[in-house]
Request: fold
Amino acid sequence: MTVEAEAEAAMHADPHHIPADADYLTYERGWKSWLTTVDHKRIGVMYLISILLAFFAGGVFALILRTELLTPGRTIMEADTYNEMFTLHGAIMVFLFIIPSIPAAIGNFVLPIMLGAKDVAFPKLNLASLYIYWVGAIFTLVAITQGHIDTGWTFYTPYSTRADASAIWMTIGVFILGFSSILTGLNFIATVHSMRGPGMHWRRLPLFIWGTYATAVIQVIATPVLAITLALLAMEKIVGVGVFDPALGGDPVLFQHFFWFYSHPAVYIMILPGMAIVNEVIATFSRRKIFGYMFIAMSSVALALLGFLVWGHHMFVSGQSEYATMVFSALTFLVAIPSGVKIFNWLATLYQGSISLESPMLYSLAFIALFTIGGLTGLFLGTLSTDIHLHDTYFVVAHFHYVMVGGTVFGFLSGLHYWWPKITGRLYDERWARVAFALVFIGFNVTFLSQFVLGSRGMPRRYYSYLDQFQPLHMTSSGGAYILGVGFLVMAVMFAKSLKSGEKAGRNPWGSAGYEWQTSPRPHPHNFAEQPVFTRGPYDYHLASERELFTGTDAEWDTQVAKKAEA
Amino acid sequence: MSTDAHGNSKFLQHHYDTPAQQFSAAKLGMWLFLAQELLFFSGLFVAYGVYRSWYPDAWVVGSHLLDYKMGTANTCVLLLSSFTAVMAVRSAQTGNQKATGNFLLATIFLAGCFMVVKYFEYHHKFQVGYLPGQYFAPHGEGLVEIVAAARETGVNGVPFHLRTFFGLYFVMTGIHGLHVLVGMFVMGWMWNRNRKGEFSKRYSTPVEMTALYWHLVDIIWIFLFPLLYLID
Amino acid sequence: MNQSAQLPPQLSTFAPDVDWMYLFLFWLSVASFVAIVGVMVYFVFRYRRRPGVDAVPTGHGNTALEIAWTFLPLILLVFLFHEGFRVYVQESVAPQNTVDIHVRGMQWNWEFTHSNGVQEFNQAKIPVHTPVRMIMSSSDVLHSFYVPDFRIKRDVVPGMYSTLWFEATELSTPEHPVHVFCAEYCGAARGGTNGAEPNTNHSTMMADLHIIPQADYASFLREAGGPPAECAGAADDVSVCWGQHIYEQNGCRPCHGVDGATQAPGPNWKGLFGHDVALEGGASVTADEAYIRRSILEPQAQIVRGFGNVNMPPYHLRDQEIDAVIAYMRSLDQ
Reply:
């Protein structure tokens, strides 16, 4: 037999051999192939669809509640319904959208490829995480339809222990969602430790990996504490154990300690991945290695660890001891430092770069500006004297939306736009992307800047009705929300059109030196046809070859090569 | 045949290069899982610590109302079961299929004994009204025992927070018991896989991982037992 | 100091210090934001991609720079912590000679009890230029006592007492009292009627503080706490007038109608006194003086059928006040 015929025969004899030109989206078709897949890329895509649906639902609740807040009194609903609206907005956005968003939807897709691995360490566990997420989501839906969840997403006792039984459904749903998060984190840690390809030492890891790794550590350590808190809350409601309800001999402040012990690290689960994406996008669109690589990597780890020490800053006025309050304030200032380090390093990366402003870069630059506002306003809340005035007012609402939306969501959008061509193999319309960006940026700032002033003027949060003097700012804020909504609609239509009829992408449309851009436009089911060996860092533009940085399609490259050969 | 067309062990998954890499990843994954289990239980221990420091009387009386003989028996049973689990791993590592199966069965049996003793403990408490939280309503023999325990420990009257003690007792031992049941199920699964001849000198990872989990379940009991049963 | 448009009026001794810190942080934030975004915009423009101009490789970074921008902000942050902490200590340690007022938060009312035993609902007289300490607890769920004009806030927790203190610096007028808001979410009436009505949910759980001269407060403390002045010359019974005053001021009106029509959230008072009432659990009782008294002090004891889920909290009215309420109820049927 000839060599070629032997190879051909070998290929057909071995059912595991996948043709080199296969792509993960079309290699197998049908519902079953998707629901039983262990391919991290397909799992990532299914997560992406799920969290986008959750984002839409959470966004609808936001628009509803902002509509109610257009007038001081009743606008479209009664107070008890309004309370359910803000509870559902918060719970869906936190547990169904933002916590899984970047790690599960983008991390799952990109992390193994960046490591040079074929998949995550435990692919079946990955699929299980997705199923667990769906089960948790179903419990949440049941809770929404079964009763009146109006406890706020924070479930403070004793209101939550005495309120509607539907809170038990929600508690169980969030408990289950927590497991999905823990297993994702566990998988990522094992993957980064065990599956790095040849030449991929820790100091060469893309910073997206460092950020995702730090996030995974928090997911594994913090989430179980939420799980036990929710389990105790459910037990309190079902059997009246008496840990949190004073009527049964319990302590409501203890609940707050338990809750925030998880929920503060949780906000680092939210922001670290956003920062992780910003590293990649800034490097690519400045064509330069991130300045202070090791400092950025270590600052992610520092944030993950320090984040466990500051939970009491949510409780300065709760009735906890003054000594605890002072210690938590001091520690809170410490945790501000690593974030500042990142901002300065990103600016230093722009210096002497070669910068282009495509939409992924617009979102990452906006991240820097908006996260700066979010972080600075955190100082007002960490400072004891000002926090007494600002706690539980709209100032807090504005602060956390700046870091969670201006930070994480903008980071997520940056990543979504950035890796869209790699996930779908298609480009989107850059002009419409910029229109959507402008609407989202303007809408977001109008919505939330006004809320800082509402808060400092004394407007408390979670209020259904308010004093007349607060109406102009509320109307402004609601107007901004509508603009934000329109911006997302434009973006959704733009992405839908890209899926249907977008221009086919080359393997590296942004000309990045990152490794994931060396796979075919839609990656092979095993990511690479051959195991890659890493001989340079992911940001070494001066070491990358022209082929590696070429932004056109493979056909265009071949044409270019042919033309050069002729000349 | 335990190898496939590429000459790899059929238990080597497609995304790993070597069995050693796969085993090392599995171990790391399992230790991470155990870490988060520990943090899960730690919340309960914190609640226990807080309430014990606030209501020491209730804790002393409550502890005396628990049957330390049954608790000790359960402790011995679990310690022994950890030993049989280790022996199961050793047998799997040395390729002794029969011994592996027997030690797994022994571990399951001992775990079952634990659950049976637990059943008797719970049953007695339900009968005399030592129920968690708001359902705490001691009657008959239950009241007699409480008064006796209070006298023994020098506590004045019936502490109000006995209900909290029992609430935490049931939640902590109940969640631990659930973990024992899960462990029994997983070991049963391992016993079945062993029966089918899936484990050998070269591949005993699932048995080792199961045993790791089982040791954690044991260790948690080692802490629960003195904290709940042996307060003086 | 100058009043900032971002902040409420400064009506306590704490306010100037808190505002100073707020405005310091504000200008610091503005300056930092302008610097960071300014540098960013400048770099984006100055280093925009141009043909033939490559990015300069990053090289080995600059450790001195990293250390500088790690530790210099730290110094600033230590200053912020210290200033915030200093004022917090003042706010936490009440002076020796405070005027004490007990506060009880309950869904969705504030009950103030002065040191002479007189109670006020959803309003309180406060002496000006005097350290006043609030000793607070909740009858049901978490609430929070927040006075923006004073810049103070403290959660009101069931099962424990929390305190705060302040010294008001200006008199208020009846048209412009100092507002107290509840700042910890505490729910709303289920199947609510009008959420904008006072005292029906978290956002309408407000109280008015009337800052009065010290002499006026002193004489108020000496009063026995009898009927309000406007009832002195009442055409009919002073008691009826007082009872109606209590009905309107002490949190009865949001739940109990007096027109014979509305029966939610609580039973209507018209046609109630002297008639038979069916109770939850099947028994029935005559709504006499004893029943009315018990319904005010122990509302969970004999709940009217159909109102089992309402959870009316106890109202600690004094005996004479209960007598007045009963007189008012009787007058509704005449």
In short: Chain C is about 30% helix and 20% strand. Chain C has a mean pLDDT of 90. Chain C touches chain A through 89 residues (CB under 8 Å). Residues 99-222 of chain C form a domain with the Immunoglobulin-like fold (CATH 2.60.40.420).
